[in-house]
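Researcher: We're teaching a course module on how sequence relates to structure. For the next exercise, students receive a sequence and then see the predicted structure as tokens, so they can try to spot secondary structure elements on their own. Here is the exercise chain.
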Amino acid sequence: MQKGTTIKYKIAFTVLTLLAVTNLYSRRNTSGNKGASQPVLAAGCSNAVANASLRLNNVRTRIDATGGSMWQDRAGGFAEYEVPKRNNDDDPKFTSIFAGALWMGGTDVMVN
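Model: And here is the predicted structure for the students to work with:
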């Protein structure tokens, strides 16, 4: 066996070992659940009350104004990112993205 092949096997073995060890020691952070047995996966946000439909460059998509959800009808559970956009409702609907979201972070005046 050549020296280069042996090094490749050692690197592959090291990477796989690190991934396995990381997976074994990983766990879900439930510290914000205050003792709940089931972790809270959402912040309890309400659904959007307004949305917009964008039609640009042969793409039609939906953006919720207050919910932060993009490319999805959350109430109906349908993908809303159409490529190519349909001219009428009888045309087949092709979607390439199911969902996405706009996340923002920052601090307030109390540095929280």
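Model: If you want an answer key for the exercise: The chain has a mean pLDDT of 75. The CA atoms of residues 9 and 15 lie 10 Å apart.
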